[in-house]
Design goal:
Blueprint (H helix, E strand, L loop, with lengths): L1 E5 L8 E4 L9 E11 L1 H7 L13 E2 L3 E8 L11 E4 L2 E2 L6 H4 L12 E3 L3 E2 L6 E5 L3 E4 L10 H18 L8 E5 L3 H12 L3 E5 L6 H8 L3 E3 L3 H4 L7 E4 L4 H8 L7 E4 L13 H10 L3 E4 L5 H13 L2 H7 E6 L4 H4 L8 E5 L3
């Protein structure tokens, strides 16, 4: 079979190679791949910025945004041949820490977790893959064309869960949300906000292309003139920051109304400094009882919730997020520099 691999921390090592098809161990599903989503993490792996190969291997099969169809399933697993599935990304650390011991490996405390396609376990970027039945999520067949969005949606399922838990420390009836960034994470955040009946505002730089149309189709408001303009007249109760842009992250922290919640989902690059009035930011957070929380990764409950969000959504709208599909042999096109108005690139893995 063909598999998309890198040599971790070696720039320019992204390569399509021939590998033996995996043999399922006890309790594992054998899955024929359908599609693979490509995100910033995959591009960073391809650029040699980080990554960890499995023990005994010098290459890592990348890919963590999976979608496949079960070929073989063990008896009693709850799965059958033909089921549409995705694989969960992270695995708990072997110690385990308190969080991992309780199935909350997305909040691992000691960093000894492993991750499919990123850290010490081969990913889903091959024509066939295996996954433990306990780490597979069955999808409704109606999600065949959009199920590859499950992993990014699971990240948003967790983010919204964090918002609810933080807000729930006192009375919390949010009416509005501002989402900064209209990439896949930002648009999926906006989708959930719309499903919740909130007044949704999305801030991005692109004035043309699919992003403004996708936001408008949600009944949300699209902004391109900066954060101050986006919150003019209505201070959001919630901000979901999905860009990781340093200056915008700091602005977002102070953008909510009193008793607001800012959830950071974008990862900022290190080594870039900006001037900030730390005292003013501190006063804002303290005197308004604001909270800033970071959120990353997802566990079983978030993947299951993600499946609910996707099934409830307009599937034509979800298809609009996938702005480009490429064949596996043309994988390099998925890792090149994308245009600003592109949303999600997907590699088709079906033979």
């Amino acid at each position: 079979m063909r598999a998309l691999t890198v040599k971790p921390e070696q720039q320019g090592s992204l390569e399509l190679v021939e590998m033996d098809e995996p043999a399922p161990a006890e309790g594992e599903l054998l899955v024929d791949a359908i599609a693979l989503g490509v995100c910033g993490t995959d591009r960073e792996l391809a650029n040699g910025e980080y990554g960890w190969a499995p023990e005994g291997s010098d290459r890592l099969v990348i890919g963590h945004e999976s979608l496949g169809r079960v070929r073989e399933a063990p008896e009693g697993s709850g799965f059958a041949s033909g089921d549409l599935v995705v694989g969960i990304v992270r695995r708990p650390d072997p110690v385990p820490c308190g969080a991992c011991a309780r199935g909350l490996f997305d909040n691992c405390r000691n960093g000894e977790y492993t991750e499919r396609g990123i850290k010490e376990i081969h990913g889903y970027g091959s024509e066939a893959w295996v996954v433990e039945s306990d780490y597979a999520i069955k999808l409704d067949p109606a999600l065949t064309e959009v199920g590859v969005l499950m992993e990014p949606m699971s990240v948003l399922a967790k983010a919204w869960e964090q918002v609810d838990k933080v807000g729930g420390r006192s009375w919390f009836e949010p009416k509005s949300v501002l989402v900064t960034g209209a990439g896949p994470i930002g648009l999926l955040a906006a989708l959930v906000g719309a499903q919740r009946g909130l007044d949704v505002h999305v801030l991005d730089r692109n004035t043309e292309g699919p992003k403004p149309k996708l936001v408008k189709a949600l009944g949300a408001t699209y902004h391109t003139d900066g954060l101050a303009k986006a919150i003019e007249g209505t201070e959001p109760d919630i901000v979901i920051e999905a860009t990781g842009a340093n200056a915008l992250v700091l602005e977002a922290m102070a953008a909510t109304g009193a008793y607001g919640v800012t959830c950071l989902t974008g990862v900022s690059p290190a080594g870039r400094t900006i001037d900030v009035d730390a005292g003013a930011l501190n006063r804002e957070l303290v005197l308004e009882n604001d909270v800033v929380v970071g959120s990353v990764n997802a566990n079983h409950s978030h993947f299951n919730k993600a499946a609910e969000y996707l099934l409830e959504a307009d599937h034509d709208w979800l298809k609009g997020l996938i702005t480009r599909r490429v064949a596996l042999e043309d994988y390099e096109q998925a890792f090149g520099k994308s245009s600003g108005d592109e949303v999600k690139v997907v590699i088709d893995l079906e033979s």
